[in-house]
Design a protein that fits this description.
heterodimer; A: alpha+beta; Alpha-Beta Plaits; 2 domains; 9 helices; B: alpha/beta; Rossmann fold; six-stranded mixed beta sheet; 11 helices; 17% strand; transmembrane helix (chain A); transmembrane (chain A); cell membrane (chain A)
Chain lengths: 305, 323
């Protein structure tokens, strides 16, 4: 009896306030979409950093005959210059930073180069002499790459020192800024959602004043009177969260998996619609908690014992 | 069953009390009339029994329990022991007679099979066994009040409070309602009925308690509506608004408060004849004090609001039914 009664009360309450309920659902859906997008972006940043730390590579390219940097004025790096880099990498000064390193000689470089540009005519024109010698360094701590980079930058015979982390820094920066923006918007919208739920519940109470008065008169318990209202808010909130999940799925499936990942490479873009398996429950939980919370506040204000 | 010990109730500090020094006891199974002009404190008394209001001073005991000691979460349990009937019926217009009675059981969690047994029983008791499917607006005023009584009694409360239950009904219909209340009383329920119905009181010859400005001025075992009591307002022995307690020890009270209800008994019975919609307005004029918004007021408000908003045809139907 109770379950059926409560269910029918929720449905009729939602139906009577259908316009308000729709606005609650939409606002909740949009705000939780922003929350979800923020979560996705943070996950992307987290994954990317993890990958970079794992690789944590700094690469030193020695001068090749074609280098244009000022440190390469003397043409290709000499054996002595290469040897001094090798010694520096083995030396005590850099020891705390470096985990390990490998040296790639000109023959290897040519092989990789020709693999990369296989099928294109100009690739076969190059010989090993055209290729730079390079050192691939794995760091202990990728955040301390600056020291290594500065150590080698500007040395005679060193063409370029590249740091993967700094290469990705702008991208991570953009993602972080966007997250702040998305979360800011989400908070704003969630405030609107909470106020809307409160207003909806208030209207619902006003609509059912007569029923409530009779219920109290015949001794219906407080919980019994309040539960339908609370669940009414919760249903609207959860519905909004589910729609947010749908929106995010559309976004990740078509935008991220359909365009971003193929364009930027799937090693870089690690998020996808599979992540919604853990994000959607979080959104539903947030939606339910906010809706029930604001329902309780509203009930305490407008419905007394 | 109900005991008032030296109870006073003041709604707003500085205003004259709605009830003063009430010492009353109603025994189990008693049938008592509460009479007195509008604003004399009858409704306040009932409100105290329901614990919708708490006394400013003194204590109220219902069914052996001191209401001041009942925590708020136990109040619903108290109210299940008490049935309440109103002048304006207060049926839910969207539910039929059967559903209105069922509602009172459903919301306190009564199992469905018990509901299926009790509701038809109640409909039969009030003589509406063939009208369970009628909507309130399809019932006459008397029939609506019977449904309301069935709703109040279906949970077999030990106390039934009736606030002017015959106020909107013609004399013949009122008599039927009164018989119903007497029948409920015979089954052992204590019935407390506030009324302006002279014929009802005179016919029943039960205990009569008269209130004037919140004080008990008469408590007769087999009383009539009017009495030779010198301070009785409803008997016309004293003009309402004149302080009947003047000269008493504790009789001083702020001036100009009692006067609002001048001629109120006549006003209310006039309004009652013209249907329920008007009576709310009259009540408001008569009781201008800032009573705290409570359950009864809210119900009243909802009633008039919703009557305007969606039940306009119903309201006029009801008026016709009452005539």
């Amino acid at each position: 009896m109770r379950g059926r009664y409560i269910a029918s009360e929720i449905l009729s309450g939602l139906w009577r306030n259908i316009a308000m309920v729709i606005s609650v659902v939409i606002v909740t859906a949009v705000s939780l979409s922003f929350v979800g997008a923020g979560l996705l972006m943070q996950k992307q940043i987290f994954d990317m950093k993890a990958t970079l730390v794992q690789e944590s590579q700094v690469t030193i390219f020695m001068c090749s005959p074609h280098s244009t940097a000022s440190t390469c004025a003397g043409g290709a790096a000499t054996d002595a210059q290469i040897q001094s880099v090798r010694e520096a990498l083995d030396g005590d000064v850099l020891a705390p930073y470096i985990d390990s390193y490998s040296e790639r000689d000109q023959d290897e470089a040519l092989k990789i180069y020709q693999e990369q540009f296989s099928g294109q005519g100009f690739a076969s024109d190059f010989t090993a002499k055209d290729m730079p010698v390079s050192f691939h360094i794995t760091l202990d701590d990728s955040s301390k790459s600056d020291a290594v980079v500065e150590f080698f930058q500007g040395r005679d015979g060193v063409d370029e020192v590249s740091d993967l982390l700094s290469a990705y820094a702008p991208f991570i920066d953009v993602l972080n800024q966007t997250t702040v923006f998305a979360v800011g918007l989400a908070v704003l919208m969630l405030v609107a959602a909470v106020l809307l739920v409160a207003t909806t519940i208030r209207m619902s109470i006003a609509n059912r004043r007569r029923e409530i008065a009779i219920m109290r008169l015949v001794g219906a318990s407080n919980v019994f009177i309040r539960t339908p209202f609370m669940l009414e808010g919760a249903v609207a909130g959860i519905l909004g969260a589910l729609i947010a999940g749908g929106l995010l799925w559309t976004g990740t499936h078509f935008l991220v998996e359909g365009w971003l990942a193929p364009t930027l490479g799937s090693e870089l873009i690690t998020v996808g619609s599979a992540d919604l398996l853990w994000i959607a429950p979080i959104l539903v939980l947030i939606g339910a908690i906010l809706a029930i919370g604001s329902s309780i506040v509203s009930l305490n204000r407008y419905l007394k014992v | 069953m109900i005991r008032f010990d030296d109870v006073s109730k003041t709604y707003l500090r500085g205003q004259s009390p709605a009830l003063q020094d009430i010492d009353l006891e109603f025994a189990r199974g008693e049938f008592a009339f509460l009479v007195g002009a509008s604003g004399s404190g009858k409704s306040s008394l009932m409100r105290l029994v329901l614990k919708e209001a708490t006394p400013t001073r003194g204590s109220v005991h219902v069914a052996g329990k001191d209401l001041a000691r009942i925590p708020s979460w136990r109040v619903p349990a108290l109210r299940r022991e008490i049935g309440m009937v109103f002048q304006d019926f207060r049926l839910l217009p969207s539910k039929n007679a059967y559903q209105n009675i069922e509602f009172a059981l459903a919301v306190i969690g009564t199992p469905r099979r018990v509901v299926r047994r009790l509701v038809p029983e109640m409909l039969e008791m009030v003589g509406l066994e063939d009208k369970g499917r009628r909507m309130p607006h399809e019932l006459s005023g008397g029939e609506q009040q019977r449904v309301a009584i069935a709703r109040a009694y279906v949970n077999r409360p030990s106390i039934l409070l009736a606030d002017e239950p015959t106020g909107n009904l013609d004399p013949a219909t009122a008599e039927g309602i009164l018989d119903l209340l007497a029948q409920i009383n015979e089954r052992g329920t204590t019935v407390l009925m506030a009324t302006h119905d002279r014929a009802a009181v005179d016919r029943m010859r039960r205990r009569v308690v008269e209130l004037v400005d919140g004080r008990v001025v008469r408590d007769e075992a087999e009383g009539t509506y009017e009495s030779p009591t010198p301070v009785s307002v409803i008997s016309g022995n004293v003009e309402d608004g004149d302080d009947p307690t003047e000269g008493d020890a504790g009789g001083e009270k702020p001036a100009g408060v009692g006067s609002v209800a001048a001629g109120s008994a006549a006003a209310v019975s006039g309004a009652a004849a013209s249907g329920s919609a008007g009576s709310d307005v009259v009540e408001e004029e008569l009781v201008p004090d800032a009573r705290p918004r409570d359950l009864l007021d809210e119900a009243e408000e909802a009633f008039s609001e919703e009557a305007l908003a969606e039940d306009l045809p119903h309201a006029s139907d009801r008026e016709e039914g009452a005539r």
